[in-house]
Amino acid sequence: MRVGLTGGVASGKSTVSSILRELGAVVIDADQLAREVVARGTPGLERVVDAFGPEILTPEGDMDRAAVGAIVFADEAKRKVLESIVHPLVFERIIELEAAAGAEDLVVHDIPLLAESGRADTFDAVIVVDAPTEVQVERMLRDRGWTLEDAESRIAAQASRDDRRAIATYVIDNTGTLDDLRRRVTEVVEELRPAATR
Ligand SMILES: CC(C)(COP(=O)(O)OP(=O)(O)OC[C@H]1O[C@@H](n2cnc3c(N)ncnc32)[C@H](O)[C@@H]1O)[C@@H](O)C(=O)NCCC(=O)NCCS
Ligand SMILES: Nc1ncnc2c1ncn2[C@@H]1O[C@H](COP(=O)(O)OP(=O)(O)OP(=O)(O)O)[C@@H](O)[C@H]1O
């Protein structure tokens, strides 16, 4: 069974992914793949440098993620350029990893931009991690050291909460404690598992 997992920035997707892994799911993480395809020395990074200039490299030759983030979350056209390089490479890797998963596995695709992609209906079910905007902002400021402007520009670059909830088979509300979250994720997996073995 293939399940899409999405949620706004800092809604708690990665936390839900780790709980799902502990519960035995195979998780394919688009954010992680988006890092791998532009790792030091890759053709992907070369294309990003061609588009954005060598100033987006650190002295060690890695992509300076904070610098690229500052550029693309302030300018939609530049964000589209970056996405046009990174997304097809991520998509290729997703296909490869999916082919390697067992037919009986619960395969969860953690895709931050699933609502934006128009691909939600290619999954057997979609889990949306949901938290009010104020909670997302509070977590970004508290845990990532971002400024209010950084936080708001990422939220502005994403689909609305309503757009995400509209594609959900299951909404996981993440306004409570981590224990509440774990309970809710376990409940959703219990509902998914019988469907997976049918
Ligand atoms: C701009 C980059 C370099 C910033 O890196 P940084 O380490 O600060 O953030 P990270 O990659 O960990 O992403 C954190 C969160 O930001 C949000 N985000 C990332 N890219 C985008 C985007 N293109 N549009 C909207 N939100 C985004 C997501 O909620 C994501 O979970 C990086 O996010 C990137 O390469 N983005 C383009 C690729 C992409 O679209 N990735 C998202 C899904 S594949
Ligand atoms: N229920 C919760 N209570 C308190 N903190 C939480 C809760 N859920 C998640 N967090 C914290 O909020 C932050 C954001 O969570 P997480 O990294 O899982 O979000 P994300 O949706 O994966 O973010 P991104 O879109 O940036 O990848 C993390 O520091 C995480 O530990």
UniProtKB/TrEMBL annotation:
<dbReference type="GO" id="GO:0004140">
    <property type="term" value="F:dephospho-CoA kinase activity"/>
</dbReference>
<comment type="function">
    <text>Catalyzes the phosphorylation of the 3'-hydroxyl group of dephosphocoenzyme A to form coenzyme A.</text>
</comment>
<comment type="pathway">
    <text>Cofactor biosynthesis; coenzyme A biosynthesis; CoA from (R)-pantothenate: step 5/5.</text>
</comment>
<keyword id="KW-0067">ATP-binding</keyword>
<dbReference type="InterPro" id="IPR027417">
    <property type="entry name" value="P-loop_NTPase"/>
</dbReference>
<keyword id="KW-0547">Nucleotide-binding</keyword>
<dbReference type="GO" id="GO:0005737">
    <property type="term" value="C:cytoplasm"/>
</dbReference>
<protein>
    <recommendedName>
        <fullName>Dephospho-CoA kinase</fullName>
        <ecNumber>2.7.1.24</ecNumber>
    </recommendedName>
</protein>
<dbReference type="GO" id="GO:0005524">
    <property type="term" value="F:ATP binding"/>
</dbReference>
<comment type="similarity">
    <text>Belongs to the CoaE family.</text>
</comment>
<feature type="binding site">
    <location>
        <begin position="10"/>
        <end position="15"/>
    </location>
    <ligand>
        <name>ATP</name>
    </ligand>
</feature>
<dbReference type="InterPro" id="IPR001977">
    <property type="entry name" value="Depp_CoAkinase"/>
</dbReference>
<keyword id="KW-0418">Kinase</keyword>
<dbReference type="Pfam" id="PF01121">
    <property type="entry name" value="CoaE"/>
</dbReference>
<keyword id="KW-0173">Coenzyme A biosynthesis</keyword>
<keyword id="KW-0963">Cytoplasm</keyword>
<keyword id="KW-0808">Transferase</keyword>
<dbReference type="GO" id="GO:0015937">
    <property type="term" value="P:coenzyme A biosynthetic process"/>
</dbReference>
